[in-house]
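Appendix B, record 7
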Amino acid sequence: MGKISEDWRLSTTLQEAAAQCPEVMLKASKPLTAEIKEQISVAEELRKSEDIYRLIVQTAGEGIWSQDAAGNTSFVNKRMADMLGRTASEMVGKPVVAFVVEDERGDHEVRMEKRRQGVNEVYERRFRHAAGHDVFCRVSTSALMDAAGNYQGAFAMLTDITEQKRWEEIILSQRDLGVALAGTTSLHDALRLCLTMAIRTAGLDSGGIYLLDDEEGIFNLVVYEGITTAFADKVGLFAPDSPHANLVKRKKPAYLSIRDKDIFIYEGIIGEGIQAAAIAPIHYRGRIIGNLNVASHTLPEIPPFSRRVIEIVAAQIGVYIGRALAENALRISEKRFRDLAALLPLPVFETDSQGRLTFANRMMAEVFGYTEADTAQGLDRIGVVIPEEERAKYEEMFTHLRHGETIDAVEFTMKRKDGATFPALLSAKPIRHRNKFVGLRGVVVDITERKDIEKRLKKNEELYRAIFENTGQASFIFGKDTKIKIVNAEFEKLSGYSREEMEGKMSWMEIVEQRDLERLLSYHRVRGKDSHQAPRNYEFRFLTKEGTCKDVYVTIDVIPGTKERVASLLDITKRKAIERAVRDSEEKYRNLMEEAPIGFCIVALDGTIQYVNRRIEETTGWQRKDLIGQNSFYVGFFDEETRGLLMERLATRLAGGAPKAMEIPVTRRDGKRLWVEIKTTILRRGGEPAFAQLAITDITERKQAVEALKESEEKYRTVLENIQDAFFRTDVHGRLIMTNPGFLKALGYATEGEVQGQTLADFFPEREECENFLADLQQNGFVKHRELKLRHRNGDIRIISVNAQYHWNKAGVCAGIEGIFRDITDMKKMDLEKKKLEDQLNQVQKMQAIGTLAGGIAHDFNNILGALMGYADLAKFKTKDDGIKPYLERITNACDRAKDLVSQILTFSRQHETERKPLLLTPLIRETMKLLRSSLPSTIEIRLQCLNRNDTVLADPIQIHQVLMNLCTNAAHAMGKKGGVLEIKVTEEDLRGTDIISHAGLKEGPHLRLEVRDTGHGIDATIMDKIFDPFFTTKEPGEGTGLGLSVVYGIIKNLNGSISVASEPNRGTVFIIYLPLIDADVGAEVVGDAVIPRGKGHILLVDDEEPIASLGKEILTALGYDITVRYSSLDALEAFRANPRRFDLIVSDVTMPNMTGVALAREILSIRPEIPILLTSGFSDLVNEEQARKMGVKAFIMKPLSLQVLAQAVSKLLTGGVSKN
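Structure tokens (predicted):
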């Protein structure tokens, strides 16, 4: 992309130069005009980069469509063609209107007229897909006008919004369906509306709705559309075990295709012509109540979008059917209530939400002394039968009813029409519709004659209610049908449901975990037949509203005289968890005892062995069966003496004595003597001693080790005295009590007495590091390979690697710390140096990899630049018109910029040999700053501080210029629009000794130090190690290539220098460069206008690039030379062999097919050794200037060649000199 973008930039520069002053260009001679046009035609070749941009267009996520002035398609990208189900070749050349749906073509022509007037707009349009369906698009279009304002066509970006439109259609259809359903009273009509909406919105053509008969389990077809009556008769009924029913019972939609065997569950499906079908279950409150079937006679399968529509409509049908069934049940219940109320011998009434009577039965009128005419006219409010003194009580009751509470047998003093009063019980329950209070229903019982009985009943009722509510256990009453009738507050807490959610609505099966449900249902069925045969108490897993599972213990009793049961639940979740934990703990303890590395023996207080583990068997050689039940004091492995000690120790522990281990000898069954350590623990039960646990450890090896230790102590001391590592031991206060010679040597002491009494902390330069070391030691009991810093006696800081641990006295008490360490200071320095060298190697490898890529494009690019630069120079050379020269100069400048880019690429690749010469740095820096000043914002202040004495380095001035420009432009970018200070400072520094360590690759001696400092935003520390990587950049796309700092790095390294960077966020960045200084006198080099020499002679010009060869011929002919051109090295060799004395000079390209320029030069020199040869190359790894000279080539010049350079080189060779450039 870098090459393509630069080609495009050069082409644009040429066009701009040619367009800036057309009048002046017209004044030029016709030959000159033709030459300039040829220049432009060469630049046009660079437009091949359009292929890249076309690729971008073809892979764009949006449709792109352009048309010409006649309205015909001139271009579509792949995305646009795919949106309409076509190929680009099918669309190009055809009118755009041919793809617009017919009813929108008139609007299309109106909008096209706007486009001809230059109006741009955004609108929606429907196009016809190749498959026949409509594609909705959002079109953003722009008119294409030429410079004169003439309409050339239009360009549009199109977004497919078909999916969005379909969803809008679904939403509108659902809204329309909701309105239609609200006005429909017939379930059949409502289902037909739903079916029609499902078929239309899903884009299908037929279907039907089945409803499930709960009692028989049969699916009945209730409405259908788009199928024949004969087929409807065949599929109108499905048994519970039919394939259709089994698909529905899976509770998820099934999608069938004629290609799948599942579709043949329907008889006559082939004859009906159905290709694909969908079966969507219809749910209501988690229960299947039917299914929606939709089908297509044309589509091979149900599309994904249609599937979503089907599932949405199926859910909507479920909601509607459920609501219809509930309302129907409510109407039936209402009728039953009124029929029952007419027969009841008690006053029954209903009110609305305001307390106005809406119903009163016959007994209501009789009891209160009203006539039927009175009740027919309306009693207005139930309050008319309530005396004034009872009104407040009644209003309070009414308020409770509003809040959903049921009023059961509240005593009131009632008033008849004649004013007489009587005691009565008023029971009422709120009437709720869709969970909203709409009135109350009540019954009045005259209790005049039963007042005393009622009082006793009331007390019993209150007692029962209090017990039920305050028993402390969660309780509920349920019926034979499993419905929950009444719950108490504790049950609400346990379940998470409210009374309103459960009472009369939920089944107790909904609170039972699935794994226990079948068991509890079997108990329920048995209890229904004979309550004495079913378990009264059992455990099960209880499901709460949140879905959590609890363990409960239930007690169930049948309420005498009823079919209802009362259940009391106790939450035993914690108890079950404890039991599981205890079982797990016991199992873990048992496993731990069995797998323990020491023996365990549990004995009763009389000494009888109750348990021994596997380790006891291994230690004593006695089997478990031989020991359990025996008296521990008289088993074979204890002798008389040890038996007495053991009995004495057990008695001491039982008396409350402190636990203390005892070491005694025992005899194994095979007669072998062992030493064991026994620790006694008293196990208690109920606070009283019950058992003794003996922990028996085989310490035979430890005993032997103690003896061996005594023998090794002298050896240990000898080793410590002679090892090179440092050893130390401290007391419990950290004071040194023992060191070896290695310790004294490591820290610079002569005798042990000099360090005795000092603490470890005295040797730590940082107290915190000492505290961390001691904390780790205390936590783990040891430290291994811990790196620490200790202070040497002379003040130096030494880095050590230490292993340390606590040491213990014979009593088992910690006596201090002991450890051994090694001085690794020198090793750490070597590791650091190694890391630096590895980093440098990695950077070199990266630069080499990118260099291979960069060098690959240089040759072709230089050939292109050669043509541009040569023809521009030739035009300047030939023209006599001073007015046109500035424009030609701009072309040359553009070529120079491109040449600089090539130079930068070649420098980056490090395959281009540059000419190093003594260079005074200060004049070059000042010249660069003058150039830079004009391009930097005025908000950036430039400060320059240079040496007044000699600052000569061995370098290429072009490369140093590149370094300065890259670093300074990066600094300017970092400071941005707010500005800041850009400081360039040059100083001299003599690097010696340790100074060289931090500057890898430098040699000792005087160096020039160059600093480029800015006050910008700084460099993030996380990317500091990447900034010299090729192509790494923090700039926005298009603002940088990521090569600048890589090039700088490569240049400085090739000059045997070093570069480093330091940065602080929001403070700025400084790049520091070191270059070796040299002793050299550098004279000022004055470059003026060079004279272009002419000459005579016959030149054989060889180049496989025809434009380059033609250009060379024209330039050299204009300079007075005779030119023979060959485009092939083989042809050139043949021409030379035919007449070697015909030519005075050979000018050849290096990189050519079949035979390279180097090979051609060897062949020609073998024929005529003295002939001068000039080799040119845009880039080549075949030969360089030095190699060319060794093989007899007189001159080697890098492309692109200016007219002046070529003229001087040819003149010099023909007059006997040697040229280089």
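Remarks on this record: Confidence is low (pLDDT under 50) at residues 1-29, 1082-1089. DSSP finds 37 helices and 43 strands in the chain.
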